[in-house]
RNA methyltransferase
Amino acid sequence: MQIVNIDDPNDPRVAPYQDIRERDLVGRQGRFIAEGKVVLDVLLSTARFPVESILVLENRLTGLDAVIAKAPPGLPIYVASRSVMDSIAGFPMHRGILAVGRRRELQGAEHLLDTLPECALIVVLVGISNHDNLGSIFRNAAAFGADAVFLDTTCCDPLYRKAIRVSVGAALKVPFASFPDPVHLMAELVAKGFDCLALSPNGDSEMRDVRPAKRSALFFGTEGEGLPPPLLARMQTLRIGMVRDFDSLNVAAASAVALHHFSAGRF
Amino acid sequence: MQIVNIDDPNDPRVAPYQDIRERDLVGRQGRFIAEGKVVLDVLLSTARFPVESILVLENRLTGLDAVIAKAPPGLPIYVASRSVMDSIAGFPMHRGILAVGRRRELQGAEHLLDTLPECALIVVLVGISNHDNLGSIFRNAAAFGADAVFLDTTCCDPLYRKAIRVSVGAALKVPFASFPDPVHLMAELVAKGFDCLALSPNGDSEMRDVRPAKRSALFFGTEGEGLPPPLLARMQTLRIGMVRDFDSLNVAAASAVALHHFSAGRF
């Protein structure tokens, strides 16, 4: 463990932490930011992504011993005072715990499909462009033991800082892959023995009446528009029983309810 | 319907809409702000709260006909240009649809309890201090037909602007009441024939194994701390089956899963 005190906000070693919010918008050239103790713990425990460094507020270091013990040998741990840390980040960094990770090349959906276990529960997302919703869906996927999340290319980035934070690290844990065409992916899933199920407020079957299969793929679309009609026309559609005169559930809440139903018997 | 054009951001008639964000913090002296078409529709349709006025961006008025038709006769509908509206609000008001409602005196929990139907599903919240979570819980409560939400005095305000928005108006629809002491409320609920069930990651029973009673009260505590131990010690505790090594569900997601389970057979 290599503790390094940082006194100068412009120290090049902490450059990846500078101007965090502005950098959210322009991108980080293959890196991502993990925030907070729980997320750091997931990042280090699962080790799905390489970690480049950690930046900690000086008074938070003591409470982090058990987490930092999981770090790979030689990982630089930068320690800064409150004022230096806030200057680096460009705004008050209340959490005081940051890490920079490195993205891996995004695996193709077909490759990820081949790695799934015989009994599998997966989530397929089409057009989820809100980081809160995406992070929450990942959190639910991790909580209910989903094996993977597949995102079409109109979904937002699961490794965006806010998405990781809202997911409490699940975006760093649950394997994910991107795909271009939902209809094509569905055909692949069917060929691999998946029951493909579309969650939709106007679904034909009440979800409670559908028993989880050995391999289930749950499709969720954006709020408002929902899943594209050409996709819905080819799939079994499920509705979650609810009051008729109220706006439907938020998509993240719907994912929690559906994942709970389809993970029955898995724990 | 009384359409009034507003040209001056300082027109006293739109004073309740001024400096929206600052006013969020200091309070609105018995008023609340509803934002967006869906929320306005709920506000006017349910008519649980009196509406004082509506403020609409000029180019949004046409699309609002069906909603505004539900307004009480004589309700002032203020119409402003983009620049006047942004000046009033103090920031860019993308939605362009606002209304001011008047709070009613908060009813006591005992009074609300007396109004509940014979078959009832209610939500009891202790220490939910995050407006996103509170709004989401209200949305789930409305979607699954909960009859009421009870909040202890450490919960945040359901009529805070963001809570109403996140609830997509459910905070204006589902009756709620405040109570000081959860143990005391629980005793009252038991006396009125409610099964009182505490959702907790370490609950004794798996939720799936518990059949909904005629009257069920679902208790949720804050994330992290959870429900207070003296309360848990007196209640049946339920866990939602999930992966053991991951951080538990967000409390709003847990409320969706539990409300779905306990609303079985209600629709």
Observations:
- The interface with chain A takes residues 38, 136, 139-140, 142-145, 168-170, 173, 208, 240-244, 246-250, 252-254, 256-257, 260, 263-264, 267 of chain B (CB under 8 Å).
- The two ends of chain B are 36 Å apart (CA to CA).
- The first helix of chain B runs from residue 20 to 26.
